[in-house]
Amino acid sequence: QQPSNIGILALEIYFPNQYCDQAELEQFDGVSAGKYTIGLGQAQLGFCYPDEDVNSMALTVTQNLLQRNKISTHQIGFLEVGTETLIDKSKSTKTYLMQLFGDNSRIEGVDVKNACFGGTQALFHAVNWLESSYCDGRLALVVCSDIAVYARGPARCTGGAGAVAILLGPDAPLVFDSRVRALHMTHEFDFYKPDPSSEYATVDGQASVRCYLSALDSCYMLFREQLAKADGTDILSAKQPRYYCFHTPFSRLVQKSFARLAYLDCALRQKHGGPGNGIDKCFAGFESLTLEQSRSSKEFESVCLKASQGQFDEQASPCLLLARRTGNMYTPSVYASLVSCLIGASPSELAGQRIALFSYGSGLAAAMFSVTCTDDPHRLAQLIGSLSHVTGWLDDRKKVTPEEFHRVLQEREEAYAKKPEPYSAESPRFGGLRGGTHYLAGIDSSWRRTYRVWPGQSD
Asked: Does the keyword Lipid metabolism apply (predicted)?
């Protein structure tokens, strides 16, 4: 029997236990006040000490999800990882996670890589598996884990780190909207990592923003068409999302992106003869702009931002809590936005509502899709309750100085691609880990990594 209402059963998020204040970083870097905090919309920047890596974060978030939701390891039949943080050119992070599953070795899936999009493609793979004849009634798990670091300079403030685990299965409180998966993929060099001696990306910042917005335009117009078909109605009558979650390199880009959606909605109403709303008149005088021209017009961007401010505050800004305070997590980013959305709303506000997600990975691959929340506020309360620790984790992190932040990243840069000195640590070398966190306990002379769990409760 075909399973029904496939979607998200549970979510778990992990981020490092220390951060750098962006206002202090502005002063230390000698840039104008507000460049990071207002211009980019960022308040804090999370980062890892050498005790943690992409594998340890994936181990932590996976174990926390299983324990918090009382999921037996034998209930998992599919597990795939999205990451672009390379530790090994052959051995996948998924294989490290298998340490958590005991004698359950029959779990499909490996790692998926394409910049920040790998987690979303892993999610699509998981949904496809759940809907297929290969699914044997067990559940699927998707893990996204990344560390975003940049060379010292203007991009370093847009780094971050974190991991998200997503449990998927039938009869879910967040159900994927069937046949709604608007995709866009092209060949671009906006952000890529061709140098094996460095983990830093080669980035064309302006091109990357243009590519992001172009992909958004393409995905959104197709998304609106697919929603209409899925709902069995015309493009203007389909039920629109209540909230919008975006992949978030920095928060200001999300506000600009949401502003474009307001403009695209106006264009759709004009094309299909629908009634205008209060903001349509704001776009008068820009009718001759092509979509490509509109992406580079600062005047038009300013008009869009002003016209959509009220909607942004209600529909997208609540989804930016984690991005503003942890930075760009890469593959987990759009799902951190979903977590922010859930913990920022009540069950009654979410019940029956549609949530749109826009995922983007440079190079490039992008998608817009959506979930619809159950009408049952009790199930939503359970889902939100399982994330009740997140704001406390944010508030309890240790603030470090910009000097310390730059020192840690400089040491990371110098150590990258060099054979590490073998070591073994009975406890974290740098301290500050939350209880229940996996940490890198040793690397031997053959580069083999081992991990331990720091004792204590995870929340």
From this structure: yes
Residues labelled catalytic: 84, 116, 247
Domain ranges for the chain: 7-453
Measured between alpha carbons, how far is 370 from 352 in angstroms, rounded to an integer? 13
Which pTM does this prediction carry?
0.95
- In angstroms, the CA 312 to CA 258 distance is 7
pLDDT digits (tens, 9 = 90+) for 371-422: 999 999 999 999 999 999 999 999 999 999 999 999 999 999 998 878 878 8
User: How far apart are the C-alpha atoms of 382 and 373, rounded to whole Å?
Assistant: 13
List the one residue out of 330, 326, 331, 354 whose CA is nearest residue 341: 354
Cis status of the peptide bond prior to 320, with omega within 30 of 0: no
Give the pair of three-digit tokens for residue 336: 């951190």
CATH superfamily label, 7-453: Thiolase/Chalcone synthase (3.40.47.10)
Is 239 annotated in a binding site? The answer is no
Q: Helix, strand or coil for residue 259?
A: helix
- In the predicted model, is pLDDT for residue 292 greater than 70? yes
Give 255's pLDDT tier (boundaries 50, 70, 90): very high
Q: 168: which strand partners?
A: 8, 140
pLDDT, average across residues 45-69? 97
256 is in an annotated binding site: yes
Straight-line distance from the first to the last Cα atom of the chain, in angstroms, rounded to the nearest whole number: 39
Burial class (CB in 10 A: 0-12, 13-18, 19+), 30: exposed
Query: For residue 457, is pLDDT > 70?
Result: no
State the Cα–Cα distance between residues 268 and 228, nearest whole angstrom: 13
